[in-house]
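Shapes recur. Our protein:

. . .
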Amino acid sequence: MTSTNLWRRAIGPVALATSFLLPVAVAQAAPAEHHADAAYFPAPVYVSLQKSGTIEKFPDQTVYPGFPGAHYLALSPDGKTLVVSGFKTGQVYIADAKTGKKRATLSIGKVVQGVKIDPQGNYALAVNASGGRVAVIDLAHAKVVQSIAVGHKPHNVRFSRDGRLAYVTVQGDDDLAVIDMATLKKVESIPVTGLDGPHNLDLSADGRRLWIRSHPAKATDTGHVAMMNLAQEKVVNSLAVGPFHGGVDLEPTGAYVLATDIGGHTVDVMDRNALTVITRITVGDGPHGVRMSDDGHWAYVTATRGNELDVIDMRNLKLVDRIETKGKFPFWLALDGNR
């Protein structure tokens, strides 16, 4: 399949102050495509379709039905198990990634947000946002074994590289809750100063820096991405990005950080060493989920209102494909390697 590519290169790196975004180059959108090109998918990509209650697996675009409110999702290290949050259903689903068959449905609260599986594949954490807690799920037995109070309105979670700790963004308290996975207890709260509602997050390959996306109050408000030095437990830089909230992802093998804006239609590309925005790429309407392939070659973006999965070539920062999803409101995604 041939994809139309109308991206424009940025003239040069753009310095960015902590509260003001200077104009950057904007990519033009390519026409929507209806079928995925396997060349863009070195490993399967799983997308949650929230308003359809389904999961779609790319590139073959197989649809797994029976996941009401499919919201966040996570893939186990062995690529065999999916854990999916049911958003306002209060449920968490455990399923076979190869077949889509559900193994279990667990109730943890009224509103479920982020889910994540530890690097060893033993536990999944599911955020009970309405209850201010995180449920610990024993994957081998498909049952909740602990519920940990973390603060007001928690949102998403990220494990340390060794799986010893878990970091939970707590929007209502503007901080990070730290969970010790050996004791399954909250051991610390770290203030996220200067960021409006810590939302989604990702961790650098060396485990030293957390990148945190904000959730401002209004859909038209400018979003920010803060970089926290974990050794200092301090936010050392903040960059203005697109409006409202979104996802954030670090390139596994390189220097790029990506942030989406569900209130707009762009992906901000940041240099994590220079701490600047390099360029802004236009994608489908309402982008939220963003993940890069394990080799750093491809980036995948879920356009919620555009009902498409967009593909960016990270080697030249070009939008190369827009794939219509077989359901509505593609929200989040998971893939082998960079989960």
In short: The first strand starts at residue 45 and ends at 49. The radius of gyration is 18 Å.
